[in-house]
């Protein structure tokens, strides 16, 4: 659980570093940092996919999970709903725009959910450790453009990850390693997709796919 607080601290430190030294960053360097974020997400996703496919007990079931999750997400129109909600804050100026971007990149996605789940269910903090590095780079990059306001993303990130962690503890006995492996596989696909979007290779609404991350829970009822 302590890594969750370290993750929040990484955002705080990244925001301070980005604010202090951001004006010295060239546009090319900022673009390079953005590419690092995208490439990191792709590597994390590819690693999870490779591991998940190799150890999966259900093989192609993850495709059905993705279809189910995408159907639910599209019906709820999560991507547009979040975009409409966050657009309300853009009218407050550039600072609020940076805060919106920070929330979108740091608090809503695969790693902030999968990391605490992995820690609670398996006692493994590897995803959170990856997210600590990822969060630091994102915070530095955004704070270099928008300033210290990015620091306010940290408490929200900690609250979300703590909420996921605490919620996962009661279901520990129901989630077998094979089921979590499916979640990791689906999460890897979402992380890979996010990386491709950041690099502007694709424009897939990842948030509409997010329910697929929880679809493997259905397998618990059939085991």
From TrEMBL:
**The keyword NAD belongs to this UniProt entry's keyword annotation:** no
Residues annotated as transmembrane: 6-25, 32-54, 60-78, 99-119, 125-143, 204-222
Q: Which UniProt keywords apply?
A: Membrane, Transmembrane, Transmembrane helix
Q: What is this protein called?
A: Transport protein
Q: Which organism is it from?
A: Candidatus Enterococcus wittei
């Amino acid at each position: 659980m302590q890594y969750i607080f370290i993750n929040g601290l990484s955002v705080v430190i990244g925001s301070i570093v980005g604010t202090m030294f951001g004006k010295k960053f060239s546009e090319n360097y900022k673009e390079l940092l953005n590419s690092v974020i995208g490439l990191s997400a792709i590597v994390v996703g590819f690693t999870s996919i490779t591991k998940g496919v190799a150890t999966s007990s259900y093989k192609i079931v993850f495709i059905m999970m993705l279809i189910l999750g995408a159907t639910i997400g599209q019906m709820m129109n999560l991507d547009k709903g979040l975009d409409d909600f966050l657009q309300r804050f853009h009218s407050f100026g550039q600072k609020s725009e940076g805060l919106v971007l920070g929330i979108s990149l740091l608090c809503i996605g695969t790693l902030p959910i999968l990391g605490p789940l992995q820690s609670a269910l398996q006692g493994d903090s590897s995803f959170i450790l990856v997210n600590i590095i990822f969060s630091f780079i994102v915070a530095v990059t955004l704070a270099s453009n928008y300033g210290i306001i990015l620091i306010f993303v940290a408490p929200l990130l900690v609250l979300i990850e703590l909420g996921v962690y605490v919620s996962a503890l009661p279901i520990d006995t129901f989630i077998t390693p094979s089921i979590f492996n499916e979640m990791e596989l689906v999460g890897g696909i979402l992380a890979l997709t996010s990386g491709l979007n950041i690099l502007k290779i694709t424009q897939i609404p990842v948030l509409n796919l997010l329910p697929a991350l929880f679809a493997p829970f259905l397998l618990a009822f059939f085991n």
